[in-house]
Automatic annotation (TrEMBL):
Pfam families: DUF7992. It comes from Halostagnicola kamekurae. This is DUF7992 domain-containing protein. It comes from the Archaea. Residues 3-154 form the DUF7992 domain. Residues 1-30 are annotated as: Disordered.
Length: 154
């Protein structure tokens, strides 16, 4: 059936080296253009809302769990960046930390199941946004060219 809620505002993308995230590794070294400004424009021009609607149709998140994520402003914590080496839009999904109980993170968080569900669904949403941006909005080609001295594995 899906969840019936209004989409949150898209995140404000700012410079963060994606290699600082535990869940992302970007190759290429040096001055990498993550194209965040263009991605921000796409998100604001409809990609965020389009991906949100697509995600809503399939999410297993319940309204209570969605409201927790919204209360914690987790949607604002997403990061999207161009990964030229892999010719894809990379992303970092925010999540509820492992020490949520000790920190009394949110009064309605009551189980690891709820935390896991929210974190998993945020990851799914990030993937949905990433794929939509690549398939529907991006018209540039990856600029990465491998070194000529790579071995031939054919």
């Amino acid at each position: 059936m899906g969840l019936e809620v209004e989409p949150p505002d898209p995140p404000e993308l700012s410079f963060v080296d994606p290699n600082e995230y535990d869940d992302a590794t970007i190759s290429g070294g040096g001055d990498i253009d993550y194209r965040r400004e263009a991605l921000q424009g796409f998100l604001e021009d409809g990609a965020w809302e389009e991906a949100f609607d697509e995600w809503l149709a399939d999410t297993d998140l319940e309204r209570r769990e969605f409201e927790i994520a919204r209360d914690l402003d987790l949607f604002a914590g997403f990061d999207f960046f161009w990964d030229d080496f892999a010719d894809r839009v990379g992303y970092h999904a925010p999540g509820i930390p492992e020490d949520w109980q000790a920190r009394e993170y949110h009064p309605d968080l009551d189980s690891w199941g709820t935390v896991s569900s929210i974190n998993a669904e945020l990851t799914e949403f990030g993937q949905t946004v990433s794929v939509l941006l690549k398939e529907e909005y991006i018209d540039w080609e990856a600029q990465y060219e491998p070194p000529e001295d790579l071995p031939d594995f054919e």
